[in-house]
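lol ok so funny story. i was supposed to be doing the assay writeup but got distracted and ended up predicting the structure for this chain instead. priorities right. anyway since i did it might as well share w the group, maybe its usefull for someone
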Amino acid sequence: MRGGLVSYVFQEPAASLNPVVTIGAQIKEMLRLHRPDAATEAELIRLLKLVRIPDPESRIGDYPFQMSGGMQQRVMIAMALASQPKLLIADEPTTALDVTIQAQILELLQELQQELGMAILLITHNLGIVGDMADQVAVMYAGQIVELAPAFDLLSRPLHPYTKALMDSVPKLSDGAQRLRAIPGTVPRIGDFPPGCRFYPRCPTARPECAETMPQLREVEPRHWVRCVYAESMTTTQKPA
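and the output, tada:
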């Protein structure tokens, strides 16, 4: 299952690629594991072309340090695609890249998703990327999904206090604010979660009962799930943006 039906792209390619093995050998290792009949130089070149690496015939003998960060990430994507997965998990795939290269990698992922018909699970802290790429969004806090909805619905009308706080913390050019709106407090340590709602100590709308009851993830509107006992009151007081 892992590496076959589901493949993974890590956030720092320089730390994930073996520095003393050529990129061709590393991709071929994936092919030997999952598609041994396809472990050929022709397939290596095809995969490198698929991720838009120029002159792939001469690059298969390169070592990772001979490539830029963007090219290294393309190699990581090629390795993930070697097994022809149905699901590609991209874990902060643009974190270590500059803004221009970030846009190229995201555009490449979108093109590959359409070409190959695979699903992409994108893990990111960048809400701008979420708005551009996602169909469905799950917001997580302290190891739990706290809100789940179609991307447009969630970004235009967040219903969980944590999602709202995340949206408010995004800098806006038009509001003239002097300081960013930070979320007070800190994320609880794993294994030391509060007994009730895990966001309760930092929630601006928390009530005493939130400290006692662990809220369930509930569908408060069609296709809009929220982990908050007062989610219904949010739907009546908040109108779409």
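The mean pLDDT is 90. The radius of gyration is 21 Å.
back to the writeup now i swear
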